[in-house]
Design a protein that fits this description.
single chain; mainly alpha; 2 strands
Length: about 260
């Protein structure tokens, strides 16, 4: 329509009308661009809000996981100390208590990090969409730290774990796992694989089997030395975890501790 109008006015040499037509076209294009830019900005704000909310949920799960790890390894450390006393100090603990705690001291917690949202944001080159500087900084630091990987690697590859598995009879180890092994905890904030060893348990194995297993552990000086090392190692990592979530801002980010609806 506007093209026909311009053509007619040119033919009539009505240059004022031609100017009006071009002005209308320019204004229309400008308004169209502004509306498109506004729509793009709205979509970006909406996407940024979705990313920020999803990232908060992931970080809240990371905090729950971190605190769960601290609780888990405090139990393994306590178990390690009881087992060490039972293996090195005659009569300090019964064979059953010593064996249960030696088994628990050999355990470690495995977990897949909740970082899908952060990785998606980074891969899309949209980290700038997270306008909350504290949220952005905490996410960058938490997902960059190696403390969780180190903790898992040390637990999985600990010399004490290896020696315990080599020394105790397989059937008795299976029984230990069934009666006194990891139990899955219910998550409140989305952390998967929260485990606990903090509960009372008893063994149905014969006293003779239990005594033989403890004697074998006690007689191997490498078992004693590796347990001593593992206890010191776990104590240090608990401190590392506590320091990590505090200094990197994870605990402060959710200091209110409200439960998500």
């Amino acid at each position: 329509m506007i093209l026909r109008s311009v053509t007619r006015h040119v033919r009539e040499q009505n240059w004022f009308a031609v100017g009006i037509d071009f002005f209308i076209v320019i204004v229309g294009v400008f308004i169209g661009i502004q509306v498109a830019n506004w729509n793009d900005a709205q979509r970006e704000r909406s996407r940024a809000a979705e990313y920020a909310e999803s990232l908060k949920l992931d970080l809240r799960a990371e905090l729950e996981y971190s605190e769960g790890l601290i609780d888990y390894y405090q139990t393994t450390l306590s178990s390690g100390e009881i087992a060490y006393a039972g293996l090195t100090q005659a009569g300090s603990h019964s064979d059953e208590v010593t064996l249960i705690n030696a088994y628990r001291a050999s355990q470690f917690n495995f977990y897949e990090r909740r970082r899908s949202t952060f990785d998606e944001i980074v891969n899309a080159g949209m980290l700038n969409l997270i306008t909350d500087p504290e949220l952005r900084e905490v996410a960058i630091l938490i997902y960059a730290t190696q403390v969780f990987d180190v903790l898992q690697e040390e637990g999985q590859n600990s010399r004490f774990r290896e020696l315990f598995r080599m020394t105790v009879e397989p059937a008795l180890q299976t029984h230990l796992g069934q009666q006194c092994g990891d139990r899955l905890l219910q998550s409140r904030n989305g952390a998967a694989g929260l485990l606990s060893l903090d509960y009372l348990c008893e063994l149905a194995a014969s006293p003779t089997e239990i005594a033989a297993a403890v004697a074998a552990l006690r007689e191997d000086n490498d078992v004693i030395r590796s347990l001593r090392l593992r206890n010191v190692q776990v104590a240090g990592r608990i401190g590392d975890l506590e320091l990590t979530i505090q200094t990197l801002g994870l605990s402060g980010l959710f200091s209110d501790r409200e439960t998500p609806k």
